[in-house]
């Protein structure tokens, strides 16, 4: 769960972020509220809901979403988006409903390590606010080459209103050999313009606040099956530090913006949904996204494997503040 912003006020409005992605993808219509993240339970629990103003203390949550799923057909599909991918990226506002739970009941259950009553999440009204053009962007032929179509550029500029602060990959199902070319391609093209002209020797300046975090689990059985199906050595979501040579780990660490977080053990059937089913894993995501903590800073305890590889502690008292 990351921070939720309403009327300019940032607060922890619930533990519902996981339900949005699944519902927008056209899966089941209800989902159980994920287990309470470990940093909100126990003797050192961080306060939650305390800063929520009175006018938003209702059992519904308005969230921003970004998706590359194909829109559903009105009158045919029960959800606004379906499982098929789209070639354009959309964003908008959606409402998550918490069943019949009142605000007080939702708060009480959201702070318990062991819940006494189930809470189901349901998707409420969804409004698409903008959409980028389809990729690849259309081009216009010119005597000296090609240029991007003016209409496409206008649509791109109209849709561009956000800047990326954190990129978080949860159990990514991508070949580990392919992933570096996708993630680091900006570093591998000497002909990429830097500023107004191509400069292969230019220094790519760091972007304050920008980070890439990859969550991985060697116990992810779903990705193990995917690796077998696609004939890959290993999927990115199952990479272990022991698989990489020391010089490659050092190179990744020198970049300064990438962290690899390992989760051990299974808290769901296939070990693929640990980022919601494991309270310590969800606590680490919140420490990153809501509180802006770096690995092993006070409040985000991690075990160092070899930087930038870290492991979420398995001991039960690891989520408390330090």
**Gyration radius from CA atoms, angstroms:** 21 Å
What low-confidence regions span 5 or more consecutive residues with pLDDT below 50?
1-27, 318-322
Question: Strand order of the main beta sheet, please?
Answer: 9-12-13-15-14
**Largest sheet, if any?**
5 strands, mixed
3D architecture notes:
- By secondary structure, the chain is an alpha+beta fold.
- It has two domains: 147 residues, no CATH class; 146 residues, no CATH class.
- 20% of the residues lie in helices and 26% in strands.
- It has a five-stranded mixed sheet. It has a four-stranded antiparallel sheet with strand order 3-6-5-4. It has a two-stranded antiparallel sheet with strand order 1-2.
- The chain is globular and about 70 Å long.
Descriptive labels:
disordered C terminus, five-stranded mixed beta sheet, 322 residues, globular, alpha+beta
Topology:
Elements: E1 4-6, E2 9-11, H1 17-24, E3 30-32, E4 60-71, E5 81-97, H2 103-110, E6 120-131, E7 139-142, E8 145-148, H3 150-159, E9 166-170, H4 179-183, E10 193-194, E11 197-198, E12 211-216, H5 221-230, H6 246-255, E13 258-262, H7 274-277, H8 279-289, E14 303-306, E15 309-311
